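Rotation project, supervised by the postdoc (A.L.). Task for the rotation student: set up a whole-complex structure prediction and record inputs and outputs verbatim in this book. Inputs entered:
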Amino acid sequence: MNFTLKIWRQKDAKSKGGFETYKVENISADTSFLEMLDILNNNLVHEGKEPVAFDHDCREGICGMCSLHINGLAHGPGQGATTCQIYMRKFRDGETITIEPWRSAAFPVIKDLVVNRGAYDRILQAGGFVSVRTNSVPDANAIPIPKADADESMDAAACIGCGACAATCKNGSAMLFVAARVSSLAKLPQGRVEGARRAKAMVAKMDELGFGNCTNTGACQAECPKSISIAHIARLNREFLSAKFED
Amino acid sequence: MSCFLSNSSLGKKLVMSITGCFLVLFILFHMSMNITAIISPEGYNAICEFLGANWYALAGTLVLAAGVVVHFIYAVVLTLENYKARGSQRYAVTVKEPNVSWASKNMLVLGFIILGGLLIHLFNFWAKMQLVEIMGEHTNSLGFGPADGAALIAYTFSHWYYVVIYLVWFLALWFHLTHGIWSMFQTAGWANDTWYPRLKCIANVVATIVFLGFAAVVIVYFIQSLCPCNGGAC
Amino acid sequence: MAFKLDAKIPAGELAQKWSNHKAAIKVVSPANKRKLDIIVVGTGLGGASAAASLGELGYNVKVFCIQDSPRRAHSIAAQGGINAAKNYQNDNDSVYRLFYDTIKGGDYRAREANVYRLAEVANLIIDQCVAQGVPFAREYGGLLANRSFGGAQVSRTFYARGQTGQQLLLGAYAALNKEIAAGSVKSYPRHEMLDLVIEDGEARGIIARNLVTGEIERFGAHAVVIATGGYGNVFFLSTNAMASNGSAAFQCYRKGAGFANPCFTQIHPTCIPVHGDQQSKLTLMSESLRNDGRIWVPKKIEDVKALRSGAKKPSQIAEEDRDYYLERRYPAFGNLVPRDVASRAAKERCDAGFGVNETGLAVYLDFKTAIERLGKDIIKQRYGNLFDMYEEITDVSPYEEPMQIFPAVHYTMGGIWVDYNLMTTIPGLYAIGEANFSDHGANRLGASALMQGLADGYFVLPYTIGDYLSHKIQAPKVKTDTPAFAEAEKNVKERIARLFSVNGKQSVDDIHKKLGHIMWENVGMARSKESLEKAIVEIQALRKEFWKDVKVVGKAEEFNVELEKALRLADFLELGELMARDALNREESCGGHFRVEHQTEEGEAKRDDERFVYAAVWEYKGPDAAPELTKESLNFEFVHPAQRNYKD
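Outputs recorded:
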């Protein structure tokens, strides 16, 4: 297969970027999208040009490092998959593919398609944990947890922190990300203890870092590579509001 | 607690949700009242009389106006913040995500259409009814009594362009409500995966009832205006 | 000068060693902890849990990772589970049994005392993780569920769907975030360690490159902890993440730390087969699949031909024409034999011509029996995400047709030599998790890597590091404006400049692929004297080629992925040779190390306990000089090495 690639190139955070067009040829349908970019980059290196910088690591959809807005969709075509899990058979031979970095004020571009997602770390540092010390814990089976609650907690905990939710949201809102963590811990007795504090602190940090306000479009859920439900956002709302009304 | 409604994203959203809920209830009331105008113009006028320039109707009007103003101001503030959060560089290519409604992404635009419709509506009706009473007059510019709502309806919807404008207005309201009604439950935290289909269904049903209820009055009166015997039994 | 290795294994009964040791080692008072700095490099299970626990104790911790967030470390990709001898299933599990299974699984090439300690603290890990909010799988009664893994006859593996590594790492990352918020830990994401700094024979800090700006920065501390994982990417294609590398460990080796058993590489039996020459990495299918999946190839060569040509689908092969070779060869363990055994058995069938895809390098992992027995829904619940992942990659649904699998490089048991305290041969330098060599011997059992990473980070290092740091309470803050730091920084800068100055014709990946090919063909699943000698010569030649012909574009003072890759490859080119040398030296077969000259008549690994009951510890002697070998002999006081038997 052959493709024309329109890729956002930007030297660094301060420089102005723009699109450049490249061609890749003889790509097998079984090649993954990032392998296709590897091939492009190897060609560019051979031509003495700078390869396209993009984030990636595990290439099996779990580390959350890869990003990319491909043909208008976060993590490209198809649902429930990260960019590294997209294969070229999803595209038409001869297609022009536009590749952009995440666009959100809270995710500034570092270079080309690489953005800084440190804001997500900072939100979790604000309260996305259970305050237990190492070794100061009861036996694992001392706290029975209904299977349904553990499963729901796991549904939310599947978040890989890739940033697709905020990147795809027309409001640049990080609600799904924040909700996933808050909801996952809220469903477990261990997390309930500091549930109110957590919800307030994480929402305050999210607001402070300049993420937008959720308007319930559900675009985040549609584009989340782990298909995390906005029901977790409802739970975050509940957690936050009840915490505030108790103040 | 006093400030989270203005300084946190979720608090602001809650204000949108509560004011929105209040406005939905008002709209349902208004619609029910309008239906009366089809069944019995006299009954309708009795309601208009009841809601004249007396203290409870004035208080209600003020609260209602406050609801609209707060809903509107918060919407603008939230949207401006969201615009900023989106960053200065926009995507060159965007497509609609699957299962994302058009209305949900265009609530502000719909809101402006609704607001525009509201202003026309206030000019057409409120300014010729309650305002006239407040000013202490006994007839309005058209020569009707301020409580003769039925006559005012008949007059307004004898003009085809008002019919069109009002129908567009109701359509925008329909879109706005299809998202707004389930969304206000979501924002208040009263939603989950089981209830999403139900809430969305309720939203669509309510929005459709509102649309049909309002549109029925407009269309019935427009058709009546076309009849040569005007209001008679032809 | 050979190493004087002292493993510092405490005396006494096996079960008492760790408690005795903890009682004997020194501790640092809270007031003094505040004055001490520790650098932790890497934020996987080992690094994150260590940094969090050390921060919690009151030390000043600086933690480094090469990704944009500590949460991205490759521990996150571990799927199947984590072992602990809780005996929640009442199947007669115990700390001793976990210890025994692990040391036997490692083919008796690990230290008894370390492995016992690992088994002992494993239970604490489960308690710790549950308290952190790790959503482990549960039964309807609300208590924790378990499943079985290779090399064990009990169900002791705890899991969170197919994302156990992710959930455990998010737990450790959350603990780390708690400490970052508290100010006891400072995080340096997108920073890569490029050298270790030694003063007065002790580790004093690191030189790191800020991967965003390209700036070379100095960081000083009273102790340095290496938690940078394994070096499987020396093979180019492996299940490791793209950026996983052996450079931090190799810099320690270059600076004088002993590197132990570098040839012990785990080849994981259930990976998706290679599909073409443009592939960038191999995807693992969790070992947990072997709980319900059955591995087979056709009995008849005609069927193999029909499958390869597409004339037949695997589901059309009759039951009596299938060779469930693991069940046939190893009746007692069946499909759940350890990884090295399963991998070699797959290779044996493929070498015999029964490989089922066009390349002849694949076998089937079939769920037909399990789906018939349990129903599609239960299988979906257990493995749904893995099945989806498989279908996404191959376009074949495992519910309809069996998976194709083939062994691939997965884990490196070898690593930096450490004593019982996890300290390397360099005082003040520690290595934990996959980066060290200590606990898995010649083969690691499934669900034990997570166990080791967290054991080291939460429950071992925070105690043992105090023994060393108690001698440093008088030491001032480590200054970074000293000649040692200046020298190390200069070397790093020169190395980078040298890479740019080559300006050859081949990309870093071109050469890395060549190295991977040499390694896989000669230092892979089956090794021989000839193949290893050939590999050494070829790697040396390739290293010369690299320094003459590599092309690194861009500049040093910017975000430059090509430079990052080139620096890592330069180290792999030396590490690969070290692996070959170690494999050549070890004239026996054990665990993942299989020398074709040393096998039983049935093709099983044949150990030589007369000559090789030792850890081979290598000392760096220069880029082109042969390293020097020191042996740490392994004394088996409590278990007696026997031929591993998974047949009955």
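Student's summary: The mean pLDDT of chain B is 93.
Supervisor addendum: The first helix of chain B runs from residue 4 to 7.
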